[in-house]
Write a structure and sequence with these properties.
The structure holds 2 protein chains of 2 kinds.
Chain A: H1 3-14, H2 18-25, H3 32-48, H4 55-80, H5 88-105, H6 110-134, H7 139-167, H8 173-180, E1 182-183, E2 186-187, H9 188-206, H10 208-218, H11 220-225, H12 230-256, H13 267-277, H14 289-308, H15 315-346, E3 378-380, E4 391-393, E5 399-402, E6 407-411, E7 419-424, E8 428-434, E9 440-445, E10 448-452, E11 458-462, E12 481-486, E13 492-496, H16 506-512, E14 517-523, E15 528-536, E16 539-544, E17 550-555, E18 560-565, E19 574-578, E20 583-590, E21 596-603, H17 606-612, H18 615-624, E22 639-643, E23 649-654, E24 666-670, E25 673-677, E26 684-688, H19 698-703
Antiparallel strand pairs in A: 1-2, 3-26, 4-5, 5-6, 6-7, 8-9, 9-10, 10-11, 12-13, 13-14, 14-15, 16-17, 17-18, 18-19, 20-21, 21-22, 22-23, 24-25, 25-26
Helix pairs in contact in A: 2-15, 3-14, 4-9, 4-10, 4-12, 4-13, 4-14, 5-6, 5-7, 5-12, 6-12, 8-12, 9-10, 10-12, 13-14, 13-15, 14-15
Chain B: H1 8-26, H2 33-58, H3 66-82, H4 87-110, H5 116-135, E1 140-142, H6 148-154, H7 162-180, H8 182-192, H9 194-199, H10 204-230, E2 232-234, H11 242-252, H12 264-283, H13 288-309
Antiparallel strand pairs in B: 1-2
Helix pairs in contact in B: 1-12, 2-7, 2-10, 2-11, 2-12, 3-4, 3-5, 3-10, 4-5, 4-10, 6-10, 7-8, 11-12, 11-13
Classes of the chains: A alpha+beta, B mainly alpha.
């Protein structure tokens, strides 16, 4: 190997490029930038301001933070629902006044004052919600106006009653405790904010009303079509925001024991900046309470810090303006370009040098030499079928196959001209197998392992395995279950071809060529699925050896067949049985004479083999070219190969015309005939095998004669 | 048929006339020439700002930074003059800053595709904060003695203050631009359906930038006129409700916030209504606080009516267009 090539191998196989794409797919990645900003701001101001971290000073700031956080949480929920609420500052001030008036002017108990503040908030919020939700006015301008109205009312009230509040002699221990006291070392407002944050977070992420909010924010029309009451949901977000701001107003009322002309001034832009800086998206659907809280801390530390550092009037506005503009711009650009970035970096090819292979050219004299025998196969369901990846026959000789539409289709014996939809599963049914009781088991692409009983009941057996410790993307989920076989003890051995791509993107996996295929076993006794082997390049077909002591499975993109020992001295280990074949293997099944059938979905080409040694080239290709101009493995020529337990190639069957069976993904022997399926084909082939046992069926071979 | 002809501008015009007649009959001194001139003068600054705002709103945008630009640019200008700068240099610097803010607004809205309300809210806050904290030292800045701005404020050609002429000239210019120039017509197309306008080959984005620059310039002119009549500029105006008065004039005159509708006529009608109303309220001796409440309530009603008359078009509305 040349040094340059070795360097490439190191570069692409040792540096985990794929991690970037997987990280970008994580939802929490959106939190990374605000979190970084949070750390920088707190560290920066904390070191610049002497005594920033001492408890008394912290106590005072956190009290303010608690109130502010309440407001921001409310605003966050509104924004998640696709709206915006600028009137929070006015509601805050009015709530404060309501509490103060109840307590100082009317000498009502603290609890009533709290309810009054909350009530004012709910009413005001309901007005906003009615205007924006039911009348469908523009949220920004509408709440801007209600903000002015609220402010005007508040100013009038303060001018009229402010003096009388100051002269009042109302007293209450509870009032003072809420304003000044601490519980477990934390002020009441912080505790309130924390409690609300937890509750709101749980509701947003785990409960129906929260999901409705997110759905409406994500797409109004889709939410409407899904039956969500969009207008009511929007209305309720404003009510919630109003209640939060009202409660915050109550807290500041207890803290300051009064309502001055400056209460809540500029709060709307502070809260808005906080929500956006935290990473909540304008237009809704994306965001969380945690983001709101991070934004609240950033903004409050920054504005308070600037004041304490002695910067004059206006500095805060300047910084807030910059912060808001930057955060909004980043948010919009990120939202717009995230999927583009993801598309570009997700495919992260690795280096592989394929071994030398023998030719499969007709007449080349090698055991692999292809011929034209499959062209003679008679067609079943021609034109009616789309994508029979696997085919199988039951004890009554009926023929089953999966289709692209998520159905299992059954053709009736003996002539296979009539068909019916046996069951609708969804997904893309791939591998099929019958168990002892006559249930049909299927590996359904993008879904999992399913069982269809003879009376057509569909049951999910498994959709996940144990998650591996180093995974970034959740690899517990089965993304591409491909083929299966059932052992005499009922255990189901099956493959999950890749962790990186969904079933329909299998071609992308061939470009990337990363070894993430798995061999799994499902145990019906426990209902659990275990991972037996990991790290193969697209595990595909599976079959139990005739003696049931081992499992044969193939590794498509590496063109190998492996044997996994279930029994004997090598139990639990795998060894390679056939390597460096000229074709990409797919399903494997038993043959009547004690050997095995293997399907080839395509043939290796020198050009693609070469490209596997140039991962940089494939990466550039995936980034710069449209997908239909990419270099893919050749899947226009395939075939069926017969091999034995020692890994010797015995026979080949091909279709050189390329019309009937160019690509073969599956074949089954049944009573002297070979039934042939192809994932991109429009038919099932039926080929008479010379010299085969005309009574042999797989069901008898596996489960004995009934 | 009669109902169909009753568009918002006509309704508002009728209301304006009605209020005018009622005030003329009921309020002593309302019809004095001095008072009438005061009304027009009071709305000339508002009107100039509303012309800029109208241009932006017709193109489906909004500029919340206008008042900040108006106050802070002039404050900066006067501050430089007071610091001994030459008139040209000072004017050059502030004009440059005004153009820059307008261009930043436009570029962020047009090219970064950030909603206009957020951009202009942020730039307005920034403009105020920057000038207030970095440039000037007190809230109000006086016009230096014997400056041309003072002369402008005292000019009375034909017994009418000069700012009224400025307003009328700008109104005519805006009218000609919107009605007779190619780019003026494009404003309507871009406001009505930006994507369609872009697909048909109009330079939608450069035009958007231009509109925000014009709005910033009109704010600067309005600021100069304010300084001329008051002989100083008070930056606390940024915190007042002037901004909402501007939106009020545009919306109440019938310029739908969803864009593509209205013109200079609507600005004039809206400004007339607001001017007469404010004047009547002042004569009635209603306190400023209550005036704010009344104005904002009217604005809310106007927006509700606007929302009912010009419902949002779900086909051309954009995600995040709130």
């Amino acid at each position: 190997m040349h040094f340059r090539e070795r360097l490439q191998a190191w570069r692409y196989n040792l540096i985990p490029d794929h991690v970037i794409g997987e990280l970008l797919q994580k939802r929490w990645i959106d939190n990374a930038i605000p979190f970084l900003a949070l750390v920088i701001v707190v560290a920066g101001f904390g070191s610049a301001i002497p005594g920033f971290f001492n408890p008394a000073s912290l106590q005072d700031s956190t009290r303010q933070l608690g109130e502010f956080t309440l407001v921001v949480i409310g605003l966050t929920v509104v924004m998640l629902g696709g709206g915006i609420d600028l009137s929070v500052g006015s509601i805050f001030a009015l709530g404060c006044f309501a509490a103060v008036a109840c307590f100082f002017l009317f000498h009502l108990p603290t609890g009533v004052a709290f309810l009054a503040a909350l009530g004012v908030g709910v009413l005001f919020g309901a007005a906003n919600g009615y205007l924006v939700g039911y009348l469908r006015l523009r949220a920004f301008i509408t709440t801007l106006v209600t903000f002015i109205i609220g402010r005007a009312i508040y100013d009038i009230l303060v001018v009229s009653f402010g003096a009388r509040v100051q002269l009042s002699d109302a007293q209450s221990d509870l009032w003072d405790f809420i304003g000044d006291g601490t519980l477990l070392g934390m002020s009441v407002s912080v505790l309130a904010a924390l409690a609300l944050a937890v509750v709101t977070h749980v509701v947003l992420t785990r409960a129906r009303p929260g999901w409705h909010v997110l759905a409406v924010g994500g797409s109004r029309r889709s939410a409407h079509n899904a039956g969500i009451r969009v207008r009511r949901t929007v209305f309720l977000t404003y009510v919630f925001s109003g209640a939060c701001a009202g409660a915050a107003g109550f807290l500041i009322a207890t803290r300051l024991s009064g309502a001055g002309p400056g209460t809540g001034q500029g709060l709307e832009i502070l809260a808005l900046t906080a929500a956006v800086v935290g990473g909540n998206s304008l237009g809704g659907g994306r965001g969380s309470v945690v983001k709101g809280i991070m934004g609240a801390v950033i903004v409050l530390v920054m504005t308070n810090g600037l004041i304490r550092l002695g910067y004059g009037t206006g500095t805060n506005q300047m910084v807030l303006g910059l912060l808001l503009a930057a955060a909004v711009t980043i948010d919009i650009r990120w939202l717009k370009n995230r999927h583009k970035v993801l598309n570009e970096v997700y495919v992260a090819p690795v280096y592989l040098r394929m071994g030398e292979t023998q030719s499969a050219a007709p007449g080349s004299g090698t055991p692999y030499a292809l011929n034209n025998r499959l062209a003679e196969a008679e067609a079943i369901g021609l034109g009616d079928l789309e994508g029979p990846e696997d085919v199988i026959l039951d004890r009554d000789d009926h023929l089953y196959c999966g289709t692209r539409h998520g159905e299992i289709v059954r053709f009736f014996a003996p002539d296979y001209t009539r068909s019916e939809v046996f069951a609708h599963v969804g997904g893309f049914p791939l591998g099929l197998a019958f168990d002892r009781a006559g249930n049909l088991l299927s590996c359904v692409g993008a879904m999992g392992l399913y069982r269809i009983s003879p009376d057509r009941r569909v049951t999910r057996l498994s959709a996940e395995t144990r998650r591996s410790w180093t995974s970034i993307q959740d690899d517990a989920r089965l993304r591409d279950p491909n083929d299966l076989d059932i052992a005499p003890d009922g255990k189901v051995y099956f493959t999950d071809s890749t962790k990186r791509y969904d079933a329909h993107d299998w071609a992308l996996d061939s470009i990337e060529n990363r070894a993430t295929g798995r061999l799994l076993v499902y145990d019906p006794a426990t209902g659990r699925t275990r991972t037996l082997l990991d790290g193969y390049r697209y595990t595909n077909g599976v079959t139990l050896a005739h003696d049931n002591r081992s499992v044969l499975f193939c590794e498509s993109w590496a063109c190998r067949i492996h044997r996994y020992w279930l029994d004997g001295p090598k139990a639990g280990t795998a060894e390679c049985l056939i390597r460096d074949m000229p074709g990409y293997p797919d399903n494997i099944n038993r043959a009547s004479d004690g050997t095995y059938w293997m399907a080839w979905l395509g043939m290796r080409t020198p050009s693609f083999d070469l490209s596997l040694r140039h991962p940089g080239m494939r990466r550039r290709m995936a980034r710069r070219l449209p997908q239909d101009e990419w270099l893919f493995p050749n899947i226009n020529t395939g075939g069926v190969v017969k091999f034995n337990d020692r890994g010797e190639i015995l026979q080949t069957f091909g279709d050189l015309t390329g019309t009937a069976h160019p690509m073969v993904t599956s074949m089954r022997e049944h009573k002297g005939y070979l039934y042939i399926g192809g994932i991109l084909n429009n038919r099932i082939g039926r080929y008479r095998i010379e010299g085969a046992d005309p009574t042999w069926t797989a069901n008898d071979a596996y489960w004995g004669r009934p | 048929m009669l109902l169909r002809n009753l568009d918002q501008a006509r309704i508002v015009l009728a209301i304006t006339v009605a209020i005018f007649i009622a005030a003329a009959l009921g309020l002593p001194g309302f019809l004095d020439p001095g008072n009438l001139i005061a009304i027009v003068r009071s709305i000339s600054v508002l009107g100039i700002l509303a012309l800029g705002m109208a241009l932006v709103v017709i193109g489906r945008g909004i500029d919340l930074s206008m008042v900040a630009v108006m106050a802070m640019s002039v404050a900066w200008y006067l501050h430089l003059l007071n610091a001994g700068w030459g008139d040209h240099a000072a004017l050059g610097v502030t004009l440059g800053a005004v153009l820059l803010i307008g261009a930043i607004n436009g570029v962020l809205v047009a090219y970064a595709e950030v909603p206009a309300i957020f951009v202009t809210l942020a730039t307005g806050s920034f403009a105020f904060g920057f000038v207030r904290s970095q440039v000037i030292t007190s809230d109000a800045v006086n016009v230096p003695a014997r400056h041309w701005i003072l002369t402008l404020g005292q000019m009375r050609p034909g017994g009418v203050p000069a700012d009224i002429y400025v307003f009328l000239c700008l109104a005519v210019a805006a009218f000609l631009f919107l009605r007779f120039t190619k780019w003026g017509r494009y404003v309507y197309y871009a406001g009505d359906n930006p994507v369609a306008a872009r697909n048909s080959g109009m330079p939608v984005r450069p035009m958007l930038v231009l509109r925000y620059v014009i709005a910033a310039l009109s704010a600067f002119v309005a600021g100069l006129l304010t300084a001329a009549s008051l002989q100083s500029i008070n930056t606390r105006v940024v915190n007042s409700t002037l901004l909402y008065d501007i939106v009020l004039v545009a919306v109440i005159g019938g310029i739908g916030l969803s864009g593509g509708k209205g013109g200079v006529r609507n600005v004039l009608i809206g400004a007339a209504l607001i001017g007469i109303m404010l004047n009547a309220m002042t004569i009635l001796d209603i306190p400023q606080l209550y005036q704010n409440l009344i104005k904002s309530t009217i604005l809310l009603v106007a927006i509700v009516v606007d929302g009912l008359l010009n419902p949002r078009d779900e086909q051309t509305a954009q995600q995040g267009d709130i």
